Each structure stands twice: as structure tokens, then as C-alpha cells.
Amino acid sequence: MTFPGLHILGERINPGFTSTKRLFDEEDMAGIQALAKKQADAGAEYLNINVGDRARTDPQFMVEVVKAVQAVVPTPLSFDFPNVEVQEYCLKAYSLEKAQGQLPIVNSISELRWDMLDLYKIAPFKMLLMASEREEGGEQVANKNADEVHQTARRMVQRVTSSAYGISNDDCFIDVSIGPVGADTEGLTKMALDGIKAIGSDTDLAGVHMSVGLSNASIMLPKEALDGGLLKIRIENAFLTLAVPAGMDFVLGTPWRHYQPLPADDIVMEGFVEAIEAGGFEQVMRIQEIYMDPDED
Questions:
Q1: Residue 294 binned pLDDT confidence (cut-offs 50, 70, 90)
Q2: CA 82 to CA 261: how far, in whole Å?
Q3: What average pLDDT does this structure show over 234-245?
């Protein structure tokens, strides 16, 4: 990985990966431990723990996964489930000593999930704050532009850092969220990039971390670009090439993937930049031009 200052929150303990789902279905703790160790050895600074809906129906299983992972690696964990009861189980199971004193991350908190802060009475933690959505009239509303992302991040960081718990900007991870670039007709990719720029330039938010679920960007794309090279990793790298200089310092990703800056003349980089500037259906069509030959029948 050659992006200076970019850190990886390991994503692989997640049933969205077929091989991991099999480990969960078979309750193969040795296999889960091997996966945790592989990510840690590859440089992951946190390991995200997501067991899917089973976290709600069988929270003890998530507890067993937490304990099994901590038995083999000292890497701090991120508990990925938007439910206060599940997070309480995880925090009580987490060993600060085995993590060498490093706090876990509660993933994720939105403006409609402030009850998560009550978990601080159990144990301190860092927190992933969702800036892609906001509370409006008691309802969850998706943000549609960079200013809404920025203002949501400001409100959330201000609220948690002004609490009685001694939470600092460094304890906050802002998730601006990205979706599939090749199906984005609403300009959400550009919103995320512009939101990262706005947050990164806000002196009141100095010291906060920013993150995205990077593999979401390349969902539904084919393996190869028109030049015969790999497409998905280059789409992810195109996003990083723009986002990291703007202040994004974490990704939820796979630590052994080759995250590296793309040159401006790379066909994927060129297409990505042109696509997000075009927006709407033009964005989708421009992304398609990266991997589809218009002269083919």
C-alpha cells in the first residue's frame, strides 16, 4: 500500500464474503482466527467484526467471535451492528488488556442512534459516525449534497465531544459512505468526495478520521477494464487518489489489496474523473466506457 497516511480497518470478518459466511455457518472459530490473523499480519490497524443478522438473534455468537479473535491478535476491534444491545454485549466481551490498551470502535452511530452514547457507562470506545444521513423531524433522511454531509459531521462531532465522557476529535471516525460508482445516477460519489474535502478543511474538525466502505465503489463492475487490466481495484484506487489528499485516512477494506495512487493518464482514472464530474446517467455511461468497447456488437 503506497498511500501515505492511509490506514485499513479490516473488512473480511463479514458474512458478505462467501468464504467467511461458510466459517460462520460452520462455527469454525479456528478459521475465523486464521482470517483475523491474516488481516492483522497484512497491516490492518483495526478488525471489523460483523456477523450479520445473527448478532441480534444470537448475540452470544458475536461474543464468541470477539473472544476468539482477541485470543490470537492484539489488533483493536470494531463492532459493526447498529443496535445498542448488541454493542453492549461486545463491549463487555472486549478485553482492553489483550488489545494492548487500545479502545474498540462502536460502528455505527447516526443522529437517530444517540442511545449508543449511553454505552460509555460500560466502557470507553471510539465511534464511527454516519455523516451520510441526518435526523429531520424525528426521521432518518439521506444526505444529497456535500454541505449536508459536512454539516451532519459537524453536529455529530460537536455533540459527542461536548458530552461528559471526555471524547476527543481523535476518537471520531466520520463515514461519508459511498455506493456502486457504476450505478450512481444521483451524484453520491461526488457528494462523498466533496464532503471529504469540506470536512478535511474544517478547522473545528481537525483530528477527526474519515472512512468509507471502499469495496462498495466497485460492486457490480466486471473484472477487467478495456485495456485488459484489473478494473475493480483501479476504481477503488481512483477514489482513493482523490480522497486521501483531501483528508480521508481510513478505509474499511482488505489489507492485502494493492491500494496505490493512479496516474492521471490511467484510463480508469481518466474515466472516473470524467464520470463523477458528468453526474447522472452520463456518469454511468462514462464508467461503462472504461470496460465496454462501443464498436463491439
A1: low
A2: 33
A3: 98
Can you spell out the DSSP letters for 109-178? E-TT-GGGGGGGGT---EEEEE-SEEEETTEEEE--SHHHHHHHHHHHHHHHHTSTT---GGGEEEE---
Phi and psi at 7, nearest 5°, equal: -120, 150
Which residues, 6+ apart, have CB-to-CB distance to 61 below 8 Å? 24, 27, 51, 54, 55
Give the pLDDT confidence of 104-117 residue by residue, as tens digits: 999 999 999 999 99
The residue ranges of every structural domain in the chain are 7-262
Q: Whole-structure pTM over 0.90, yes or no?
A: yes
Cα–Cα distances (Å) from 24 to 18, 20, 51, 69, 74, in that order, read 10, 6, 8, 13, 22
Confidence label for 129 from pLDDT (cuts 50, 70 and 90)? very high
- Per the CB < 8 A criterion, the answer to whether 42 and 69 are in contact is no
Q: What are phi and psi of 221, to 5 degrees?
A: -90, 155
Identify whether the C-beta of residue 175 lies closer than 8 Å to the C-beta of residue 143.
Answer: no
28-74 residue pLDDT tens:
999 999 999 999 999 999 999 999 999 999 999 999 999 999 999 99
CA distance 294 to 297: 8
DSSP-derived secondary structure letter, 83: -
Contacts of 233 (CB under 8 A, 6+ apart): 218, 257, 258, 259
b/e sequence 89-110, b meaning 16+ C-beta within 10 Å: bbbebbeeebbeeebbbbbbbb
Class of domain 7-262: alpha beta
Cα(133)–Cα(175) distance, integer angstroms: 10
Q: Collapsing DSSP states into helix, strand and coil, what is residue 22?
A: helix
β-bridge pairing 105-109 and 77-80: parallel
Amino acid at 29: M
On the question of a cis peptide bond just before residue 95, with omega within 30 degrees of 0, the verdict is no
